[in-house]
Amino acid sequence: MPRIGTCHSTLRTARGLSLVTMALVLAGCASTGSQTSQAPDPADPWEGFNRKVFVFNDVLDRYALKPVATGYRTITPDPLQQGVGNFFSNLGEVRTTLNSLLQGKPANAGRSTSRFLVNSTMGFGGLFDIASRMDVKADDEDFGQTLATWGWQDSRYLVLPLLGPSTLRDTSGLPADMATYPVTYVEDDAVRAGLTALNIVDTRAGLLDQEEMIQGDRYRFIRDAYLQSRQFEISDGELGDDPFAADDFEYDDADFAD
């Protein structure tokens, strides 16, 4: 079990991970001392409905998506997998740029724009992440985060069919996210569907190793991890003070005397 004092340092190094991967890291910290708690979560008043959708998604993943992702990772060379991931990540820079502007973050918008231009040209359409090698990095932003910046901070947890963990706020932002994703505008239906499927399979393949971190109630573990990871992203990694950090937490030895 990770100690509370080490969780913050783990989170600071997780900025570059995908949302779900970071969710698993966060849940490792959050699960300390809380796995046995079964109290209803106020952020999840629709738990009954959400669990039914979760079971549906889990069965679909177990018998369809996961086997395909496993086969994809087995037969696809690592450099090619990296290139596929880079390509779709590069397309996401458009969404990040627009949402950064909407959130009043021009510096992040500039970095994201630079990443897109550099990787789209020097990186052969985004297959190579040249911008990161040049130390040009930007925080991912989406419209759900924009809505939170505009004031919609607390939102009910919601599990979407096929799409998985979300919140009412983040779901409301999906249409805008789709509108800012270049694949949406590919005119050929077969090409658009193929790119979408490849993105899903590649993302799922990248999460195969993280499944071992899930402990106890899978539904609650993933829910708590998702909610914490989203809050981490919305706050741009500002976690606040750790009350159990050695420098801040003082105690009297006499308190522990027999």
Quick structural summary:
This protein is mainly α and 258 residues long.
Describe this structure in words.
The chain is mostly helical and 258 residues long. 57% of the residues lie in helices and 3% in strands. The protein has 11 helices and 2 strands; from the N terminus they run H-H-H-H-H-H-H-E-E-H-H-H-H. Strands 1-2 form a two-stranded antiparallel sheet. Strand 1 and strand 2 (164-167) form a beta hairpin. The radius of gyration is 20 Å and the shape is globular. The model is unreliable at 1-36 and 240-251 (pLDDT under 50).
Distance between the termini: 27 Å
Helix content: 55-70%
Average of the residue pLDDT scores: 81
Number of helices: 11
Q: What global shape is seen?
A: globular
Please count the beta strands (DSSP E, at least 2 residues each).
2
- Low-confidence regions: 1-36, 240-251
Strand percentage, roughly? under 5%
Brief descriptors of the model:
2 strands, mainly alpha, about 260 residues, 11 helices
Write the layout of secondary structure elements.
Elements: H1 4-12, H2 19-30, H3 47-75, H4 78-102, H5 106-121, H6 130-133, H7 143-149, E1 157-160, E2 164-167, H8 168-172, H9 174-179, H10 189-205, H11 218-234
